[in-house]
Amino acid sequence: MTKLDTKKILFTLSGLAIVTLIVLFSRTYSAHANMKEGERFGDWVVGCEKDEKNKQVCFLSQVLTSKNEKDEKNPQHIATFRVGYFGKAKEVKMLQILPFGTSLQSGTSIILGKDMIIAPGKFTNCQAFGCIAVADLTKQDIDAIANATESYVGIISIEGKQINITMSAKGLKEGLAALK
Questions:
Q1: How many beta carbons lie within 10 A of that of residue 61, not counting itself?
Q2: How far apart are CA 103 and CA 155, in angstroms?
Q3: Residues near 166 by Cβ (< 8 Å), separated by ≥ 6?
Q4: pLDDT given at position 55
Q5: Which residues in the chain show pLDDT less than 50?
Q6: Going by C-beta distance under 8 Å and a sequence separation of 6 or more, which residues neighbour residue 168?
Q7: Which CATH architecture has domain 40-179?
Q8: Cβ neighbours of residue 153 closer than 8 Å, sequence gap 6 or more
Q9: Do 78 and 99 touch, CB atoms closer than 8 A?
Q10: Residues linked to residue 102 through DSSP beta bridges, in sequence order
């Protein structure tokens, strides 16, 4: 009959437990670290760029285009929305790349349903591809957007007319959770 060495068994089992915990924690971390550009969350797509310190920063992106009746192969860019954790504090922000002909002084707003206005955006500058506004999003804002039946980014044209650009919330909450 063989004699069991209790100390050896406990040592081996505790070693296996530690290895198992390390594998489990590293797998959870790797899921976020391996976020791939082009990964989809509903109507949002992961995009990644290098920041000024050459670190990769990923965000969710939604691009809206319209078909050009004369040239169906070259759709017209309407707007791009990027949502992610930006800045040193990693706060949730929405970058809104909007068309020219927008009243910059009016800023932007996210409109839910027909009349709920949240997250005002401020224009930062205009580039060759459009004008950029930034809106800070709170957890309550994200929940409200996710639960809304309709969501828009509202702008005022230089003629003074309100223009509501449709924004889909499908996948936004899940995508932000994956970016965290």
A1: 19
A2: 7
A3: 64, 150, 151, 152
A4: 84
A5: 1, 9-33
A6: 42, 43, 44, 62, 151
A7: Sandwich (2.60)
A8: 79, 81, 96, 98, 108, 109, 110, 111, 121, 164, 165, 167
A9: yes
A10: 157
pTM of the model: 0.75
Confidence (pLDDT) at 14? 41
Looking at residue 3, what is its pLDDT? 55
SS3 19: helix
How would you classify residue 143: left for phi > 0, otherwise alpha for psi between -120 and 50, otherwise beta?
alpha
Please write the tens of the pLDDT for every residue from 54-98: 888 899 999 998 876 666 677 788 999 999 998 888 899 999 999
Q: Give the domain ranges of the chain.
A: 7-35, 40-179
SS3 of residue 85 by DSSP: strand
Quote the pLDDT of residue 6: 52
